[in-house]
Design brief:
The complex is a heterotrimer of chains A (408), B (62) and C (340). By secondary structure, chain A is α/β, with parallel strands linked by helices. Chain A has two domains: 175 residues, Periplasmic binding protein-like II (D-Maltodextrin-Binding Protein, domain 2); 212 residues, D-Maltodextrin-Binding Protein, domain 2 (3-Layer(aba) Sandwich). Chain A contains 18 helices and eleven strands. In chain A, strand 4 and strand 5 form a beta hairpin. In chain A, helix 2 packs across helix 13 and helix 8 crosses helix 16. Chain A starts with a helix and ends with a helix. By secondary structure, chain B is mainly α. Helices cover 58% and strands 0% of the residues of chain B. The longest helix of chain B has 28 residues. Chain C has a two-stranded antiparallel ribbon with strand order 1-4. A two-stranded antiparallel sheet of chain C has the order 2-3. The longest helix of chain C is centred in the middle third of the chain and has 33 residues. Chain C is globular, with a radius of gyration of 26 Å. Classes of the chains: A alpha/beta (408), B mainly alpha (62), C mainly alpha (340). Chains A and B meet through loops of A and loops of B.
Chain lengths: 408, 62, 340
């Protein structure tokens, strides 16, 4: 097994060099991005370009360093691989440059829908889509005789049956760790209930309403079936719980399904039965309780034009059809020509087909996300009412928005 | 040389040994536990079903 | 020492302190009285992988012009200090008039982020510091009484909790305390409650964080006291023994007074260090149960939109807090110095 992987990896590494040959750059490239398999593939594709220096820094803490890293002149990083929410932060700090002229000169063959355009300026080129959808153990659902859940209410029913049958005490999983993850789950569920985050046309928050309370109540109901430590479980921990055979149904990122469904880290009965489903709805609504995310690459503003061209060419190479091999095909939902979906990606495709909303790309939404992450735990711990928790989150957001100049 | 007057009473010796034993466990055990656990799989080391699994490592493949 | 030679002797350190301590504090102070310019927002059409729609974005040109004129931002005076995320003066008044009982008022105040953070920070500081001093002393006396041959290994293992990086040490305890870990499972067995989980309960989490604090800092007190014990005046000890003092009286009347200056030193260091508690909250993922001032600063800076003024204000409040905490000791030291 191990030997097979080594030979596969070395064969891939050798062929990779030859596959990308033909990318000539005459400047330096320095990439910063998140750390998961798909981004590694893209960065390696960019590094295969010859003629210039390509530096790569992939870390889970990329959001903490990318804005500052690109603020210097010249910037430390020439390209940041980011998700939609992070693009807002980069644009607010004005550290990324519009790519219109580079696209016109070198990128005419990039499909139009991959060009993220804001007010006529191409600010990023997207290459993969991601969303949180259902992941479940099909053998367990078969055992209790339940169809695949399509709504959160059905998830609760299935969980009750699994617990009653004695299969697992805490069958539901969710990345409910206080902070970013908890806020993300609230965002998904609130959108599923049809809620609007702000008063139309303004930056004034408005979540303390019927949909907000319904969202929190549904989240509380789900936590009844979760491991009591849910406020410390992020996506990694929740995935680990499923691989350990404790969690049977959960809401998980499409990009992590590959790790869950491979044959490492879990027993055979577990990993061969983990299946991806579509996004769930809630409260009888038709909008899925999930958000669509894209990952894309940008080019820094504070770099020389030579480095900008080199970066554009290198990143274009890193997200070209050439990077799609048998090994990399299943790493993400690649929005690249020649991509053939694998079963691990069914969830994200279902999410796109079901009309899932994109994550809000508003300049002030990051502040609301932080405010939610810090204030909803009290309700889930039973310390305060749903209205109080929402009011606290609103007050925290308002104070932050006033400080950042989005509100007066 | 130590005479009876200078030797500490037996009770004190036991007290000292007791305190040191407890403190050694508190200070060193977490690291030994981590070292031991680094060779085991999560299923074994954190098994609720049978805690002896952490020692024998049923699921851990050599 | 002559004043002139003292001056030259101290100059390098003084310069370093000026550069690395004084100027950064001034910078943080300045940052805390400014807020960002009002953002100019415009509605635009955004096209991404999934289609085009209307959305809002920051007007970069207008904002850039404002920033070029006033790079520091808008002068806000003490507005950041009094807003909800800090001293919350308005909310304080509201809660005072609105609440019916002290308990209610307390609960309302603890809902505010700064007061929540400072309540945990103060409890942590005032519980951990005395425990560290006492435990460190007990261990030092015990090790000093041990056979010389095993003292080496004893000292090594005693220092381990302090040597290992706080983040890693706290993570180790985090996993031990997990409901399925050694300590977590043992607690469940002892309490007879199979659902007991430290990570899910706020009081237990506070206790666990303080246990970590004591575990991590005891080696520091231990090594300082152990060094002090090596210099105990043997004649005085001999005299006490001859006078018929048993072990406990020897400790009380000879050893403890000898170690009193060291106790002041340890107390000072521990008060300062514990007030800055941060690593255990991150490693234990305990932010749902406990936050501290340092954690609040980290949280302000860690999001995608950095709240620099808020973090700066919290930093200044932390510095003031440390100064208040240390003032009794500093006043006493100054008086002693003055007397001489």
């Amino acid at each position: 097994m191990f030997l097979k992987k080594v030979t596969l990896a070395s064969a891939f590494a050798i062929t990779a060099g030859t596959a990308y040959a033909g990318c000539e750059i005459s400047g330096n490239v320095s990439i910063v991005g998140n750390e998961f398999p798909a981004i590694h593939t893209v960065a390696n594709g960019a590094a295969a370009c010859t003629g210039g220096d390509v530096k790569i820094n992939l870390t889970a803490d990329h959001q903490k360093i990318n804005v500052d890293g690109m603020s210097g002149n010249p910037a430390e990083y020439t390209s940041a691989i980011i998700a939609n929410s992070s693009l807002v932060a980069l644009m607010n700090a004005d550290v990324v440059r519009p790519l219109n002229d580079l696209v016109a000169a070198h990128g005419q063959d990039i499909p139009k829908n991959q060009l993220i355009t804001i007010d006529g300026n191409v600010m990023a080129v997207a290459f993969m889509a991601n969303a949180q959808t259902l992941a479940y153990r099909k053998d367990v659902l078969a055992e209790i005789g339940v169809d695949v859940p399509t709504t959160y209410e059905e998830v609760l029913e299935a969980a009750k049956k699994i617990r009653a049958a004695g299969i697992s005490k805490y069958p539901v999983g969710g990345a409910y760790a206080a902070g970013w993850n908890l806020a993300q789950e609230f965002t998904n569920m609130y959108i599923g209930h049809g809620g609007e985050f702000y008063k139309p046309g303004t930056a004034e928050v408005s979540i303390n309403n019927a949909q907000g309370v319904a969202t929190l109540n549904m989240m509380k109901a789900l936590t009844e079936y979760m491991n009591p430590d849910f406020l410390t479980h992020d996506s990694n921990a929740t995935g680990a719980e499923m691989e350990a055979g404790n969690v049977m149904i959960m809401n998980m990122w499409g990009s992590r399904m590959g790790n869950l469904m491979d044959d490492e880290g879990a027993e055979e009965q577990v990993y061969s039965n983990i299946t991806v489903g579509g996004p769930l709805t809630v409260g009888g609504g038709s909008t899925p309780a999930s958000t669509l995310w894209w990952d894309g690459w940008t080019v820094a503003r504070n770099v020389s034009d030579e480095d900008a061209v080199a970066t554009f060419l290198a990143m274009k190479n890193g997200t070209s059809p050439a990077i799609l091999t048998e090994e990399t095909m299943g790493q993400a939902v690649w929005m690249i020509d020649g991509y053939t979906p694998a079963p691990v990606n069914d969830g994200v495709f279902a999410a796109i087909a079901a009309g899932t909303t994109s994550y809000p790309m508003l300049p002030y939404h990051g502040l609301l996300h932080t405010a939610l992450g810090g204030n909803l735990a009290d309700f889930l711990l039973g310390k305060e009412s749903a209205e109080q928790a929402l009011a606290d989150a609103e007050a925290a957001y308002t104070a932050a928005a006033k400080e950042k100049g989005f509100l007066n | 040389m130590s005479s009876k007057a200078q030797r500490q009473p037996v009770a004190i010796t036991f007290l000292v040994i007791g305190v040191l034993a407890i403190w050694m466990i508190l200070a060193a055990f977490p690291f030994l536990w981590t070292l031991w656990g680094s060779f085991k799989v999560e299923g074994d080391f954190f098994s609720k079903a049978n805690w002896a699994n952490a020692l024998t490592g049923k699921l851990t493949v050599r | 020492m002559k004043h002139k030679s003292f001056f030259w002797f101290v100059l390098p350190s003084a310069l370093a302190m000026l550069l690395f301590i004084f100027f950064p504090i001034v910078s943080v102070l300045v940052q805390s009285v400014y807020v960002d310019h009002e953002q100019v927002i415009k509605t635009v059409e955004t096209c991404d992988l999934f289609g085009c729609k209307e959305s809002t974005t920051v007007d970069q040109n207008a904002t850039a012009a404002l920033r070029a004129e006033h790079p520091l931002g808008q002068f806000a005076g003490f507005k950041t200090y009094t807003d909800r995320n800090h001293l919350a003066i308005d909310e304080f008044g509201e809660n005072w008039t609105r609440s019916n009982s002290w308990r209610d008022f307390g609960a309302q105040m603890l809902n505010l982020p700064f007061y929540k953070a400072i309540s945990f920070t103060l409890v942590f500081t005032f519980v951990v510091t005395p425990l560290v001093i006492v435990l460190g002393f007990v261990v030092a006396v015990a090790v000093n009484s041990a056979v010389k041959a095993i003292r080496g290994p004893l000292i090594f293992f005693s220092l381990l909790p302090m040597m290992i990086t706080p983040l890693v040490g706290a993570l180790i305890l985090f996993w031990m305390v997990d409901a399925r870990g050694v300590v977590g499972a043992a607690l469940q067995y002892l309490a007879g409650d199979p659902d007991l989980s430290v990570k899910a309960s706020t009081p237990l989490m506070w206790i666990m964080l303080m246990v970590y604090g004591v575990w991590h800092s005891t080696p520091f007190a231990f090594i300082v006291y152990y060094a002090g014990l090596q210099s105990v005046n043997q004649d005085t000890l001999e005299a006490a023994r001859v006078d018929g003092a048993n072990r406990w009286l020897q400790i009380r009347h000879v050893i403890i007074p000898h170690l009193l200056p060291l106790t002041t030193f340890i107390a000072l260091m521990q008060l300062m260090d514990n007030f800055r508690v941060f690593e255990p909250i991150v490693s234990f993922s305990a932010e749902a149960h406990a936050t501290s001032l340092s954690w609040a600063i980290f949280n302000d800076l860690g999001g995608e939109t950095r709240q620099l003024s808020s973090a700066a204000a919290t930093s200044v409040l932390t510095i003031i807090g440390v100064a208040i905490l240390l003032s009794p000791v500093l006043v006493r030291t100054w008086r002693e110095f003055d007397r001489k």
